[in-house]
Design goal:
This protein has a two-stranded antiparallel ribbon with strand order 1-2. The protein is mainly α. Helix 3 runs antiparallel to helix 5, helix 4 runs antiparallel to helix 7 and helix 7 runs parallel beside helix 9. It is built from ten helices and two strands. It has two domains: 230 residues, Clc chloride channel, CATH 1.10.3080.10; 41 residues.
């Protein structure tokens, strides 16, 4: 197998398969149970760090988007109020346009600094998770430019790409354990970063895990499922705000028993519909195998 098959000018393939050779077997034999547990504990700690870091970056983007938007609309509103009497509403519109163009211009400059920060980042991450090494896709500079670019794009009045921008740069820049420098381990951390990005955008840790499993990576295992879900949960827990009723509303209730019953009913109905779909799909597949597949006759042998 060519572990670094050149796919293009700057693109290489990633070797996700374990190469079972004599040095690798000696490494496994020389690793005691205590050391193996240590590496596994470090993996969980890094998953936690990835989730919390993505959550903090998401809070950073959300805070400054709200701040810049508030400043923009406050100044424009004051201008509108003053220009309503003077008849210079066009000046207020030009001020709004100037704010939006400034924010978009800054986002465009960041794209020039790091071209990989353009777009949603989903195609690049899916390429990486499916074995294509895109140069710079997990670099810290890409993460920073993407975060700032999303910030100014949204503040400029246009919803930017989904925040999938952490790109697990932590797995390349901060990990000093040689044991985690293989393509396989870096792929696992990128899978967690992709799931955490979706969870940050939609506040859905299970949805982020399913995205990484179904849409992102073509290489998966059962142990990685729990690590990625743990990473996404850590992110959502770190970004939860305070849910409370307004002080002036004495009759406000965040939820009631009736609401909880509806949520349970929705879960049960969704599970039953999913089970029905799987059953019908399995039955249809068996029927197609029996009726559509031509089996060779005994005379052909």
């Amino acid at each position: 197998m060519f572990s670094h098959l050149v796919l293009g000018k700057d693109y290489e393939s990633l070797d996700y398969d374990r190469c079972i050779n004599e040095p690798y077997v000696e490494l496994l034999e020389g690793m005691d149970n205590k050391k193996a547990k240590k590496y596994e504990a470090v993996r969980w700690m890094l998953m936690f760090a990835i989730g919390v870091t993505v959550g903090l970056v998401g809070l950073f983007v959300d805070f400054f988007v709200r701040l810049f938007t508030k400043i923009k609309y406050t100044l424009v509103a004051d201008s509108l109020q003053q220009c309503s009497d003077r008849g210079c509403l066009s000046v207020s519109l030009l001020e709004l346009l100037a704010f939006n163009l400034t924010f978009v211009f800054i986002a465009s400059v960041l794209v020039l600094v790091e071209p990989l920060a353009a777009g949603s980042g989903i195609p690049e991450i899916k390429s990486y998770l499916n074995g294509v090494k895109v140069p710079g896709v997990v670099r810290l500079r890409t993460c920073l430019c993407k975060a700032a670019g999303v910030l100014f794009s949204v503040a400029g009045g246009k919803w930017g790409p989904a925040f999938l921008s952490f790109r697990a740069s932590l797995s390349r820049r901060s990990i000093r354990f040689s044991y985690f420098r293989s393509d396989r381990d870096k792929r696992d951390f990128v899978s967690a970063g992709a799931a955490a990005g979706v969870a940050a955008a939609f506040g859905a840790p299970i949805g982020g895990t399913l995205f990484s499993l179904e849409e992102g990576s073509s290489f998966w295992n059962q142990a990685l499922t729990w690590k990625v879900l743990f990473c996404s949960i850590c992110l959502v827990c770190s970004t939860f705000g305070e849910f409370k009723c307004p002080d002036e509303d004495k009759n406000c209730h965040l939820w009631t028993v009736v609401d909880l019953a509806f949520f349970v009913l929705m879960g049960v109905v969704g599970g039953l519909l999913g089970a029905l779909f799987n059953c019908m799909n399995k039955t249809l597949a068996k029927y197609r195998i029996r009726t559509s597949t031509q089996r060779p006759s005994s005379s052909e042998f």
